[in-house]
Amino acid sequence: FAFSKLPSDSFKYLGWCDVEEHDVQGNQLHCPRVREAGPSEEELFFRGEAHTMKKRKQATDTEKRQKKLQENWENCAELNLSFQDLGDLYQVENFKRILRRLIRVEKLWLVDNSLTDLSAIRLPRCRELNVNKNHFTSFKQLPKIPQIQHLSLAENNIMTLSGISDFRHTPLESLILKRNPCEFQERYRQLVFSSLPNLKTLDGIPKLPEDCSPPDTRFFFKMCTIL
């Protein structure tokens, strides 16, 4: 039994058309697509899909260079790159290429992108980061965000609180960890607040008196007094 290709299969790597004349400004775009048009010629050859190259418009190196200069990611202060549908390795690499250029971004949304590891990315000015609905399993997989104030990690797969203390010396004020396995850890809120003394809000709830860990008295029961 052989699977037949769908009618649209031959068009899956076709790029979007450039609209030359329009009044839309960059700050009016929500969740702009940053995916490349398709894999390289060499990658298509090894996939056995070289025939699709004939249907793709080949951009010259000069055109590619001009487009990258027009992107101007370095001066972007607020950006939403959610829902990118990064279904292939070349899409992920292009996505990370753009993240590396966000040296001035202060607010960044990367919701639902199937991201697993951004530890090689540094966002020196980022104050607000939303990476909800991704596939992070550890705090160590997050980008370097030394100025972070508001961090949202809801609906990932973070198992433990290991590595959370890395944010101890940041100005982090609010943290959202809803719907992560670590949320069910015993004394969850106390452990988070003890690791992050400057934190004010966890999962949308302000710090409460009972969130402050009491002194651990277990050791006193094992001591004896010698007179």
UniProtKB/TrEMBL annotation:
InterPro entries: LRR_dom_sf. Keywords: Leucine-rich repeat, Repeat. This is TILB protein. It comes from Cepphus grylle. The lineage of its organism: Eukaryota, Metazoa, Chordata, Craniata, Vertebrata.
